[in-house]
Amino acid sequence: MECDNPSRKEWTMHTIVVGGGLVGLTTAAALQHIGHTVTVLEQAPEIRAVGAGIGLWDNALRELDELGIGTRVRALGQGIETWFFDPAGHPLRAPGRDASDHSFLLVPRPELNALLADHVGRDRITVGAKVTGYTEDAGGVVVRLAEGDPLRADLLVGADGVHSRIRAGLLPGSEAQVHQGHYAWRAIVPAAGRPEGTVLTVGPGRTRGGYARVAADRTMWMVNQFDAGPLTGGKRDRALQRAHRLADAGWHEDLLRMIADTPEDAILENRIMRVPALPHWTSDRVALIGDAAHGLSPHIAAGGTLGIEDVGVLRAALSASPDPAAALPAYERARIPRFDRIREFSESVENTADAAEFAETYAAFSHWMLTTAPQ
What we know:
Elements: E1 2-5, E2 10-12, E3 14-18, H1 22-33, E4 37-42, E5 53-56, H2 58-66, H3 70-76, E6 78-81, E7 84-85, E8 91-92, E9 103-108, H4 109-120, E10 125-127, E11 131-137, E12 140-145, E13 151-153, E14 155-158, H5 165-170, E15 177-190, E16 199-202, E17 207-215, E18 218-225, H6 235-246, H7 253-261, E19 268-274, E20 286-288, H8 291-294, H9 303-320, H10 324-350, H11 355-371
Parallel strand pairs: 3-4, 3-14, 4-10, 7-16, 14-20
Antiparallel strand pairs: 1-2, 5-9, 6-9, 7-8, 11-12, 12-13, 15-18, 15-19, 16-17, 17-18
Helix pairs in contact: 1-4, 1-9, 2-3, 2-9, 6-7, 9-10, 10-11
């Protein structure tokens, strides 16, 4: 940590962010915003997005506004007014809830990651950088790479997802756990000739699925299955099998056509992994953020938003105190209790019995998330 002018207490802190996804790049942008010199390490050979679209609620968009990129992010996406449907196609919303409890921005991940990478500066991002571990001492952190010399920094932020190597170093034995029997399938298809609405059907047998316009020319479909049982056939066949379970005959033909029209290699199939509740997220010089700290089942559709919330809290803590040993405990104290409650909501949403209960429980979660979000 270097002091350019001690009398003004202006510090230049070098921070390494491990992970070049949505939360890692947003973290880099936020810490640059408060004067850090940031290096992003991404193990993939290029900055790319894993996934199709990402939902951003108002609590995430406020942080992007703070960073000066909210308008550009909004221009990438489509506003979503969520409706839930039962297997017969009847639309449902929880009575008494505001429109804001059902409204978010759906953004294509590739364009969003490209925008963030450009904002951070491509020269600040090292791709093909596989982190193997780190060593922390009183003066900073040394990050070890599979290839190349170690890198030293004042602060290390692990934004490297559910299989985080930074978490493995901070909390040995905290490996991500399989969410037994839970799979998700999704893809983006051309929007031409597709319906413009947003549909999420809550079907029998713990099957959920639907579609939404993710950009003017693209539509995203998804199918989510708990207790999936044995998987047979290719990815498209597996997604179609679950989609057929969603609805009564004649309802959801649009979804079935989207899946049937999607090339096999364009379909993402993921076995869902979850990060166990952690006793702490930080040390004096190291912090976990996003899925590395709290990877959840994606059925609450707010993982990216909550990761960006993390970023705002971390930025505020480091703005209030440039000493990581003082700032990181404040960040941790603010986030761990919030995620204890979020896990309770996630379990409640997952275990709803039918579409009406899902609509009620999901709106209770989104209302709580928005009204209790850090400002």
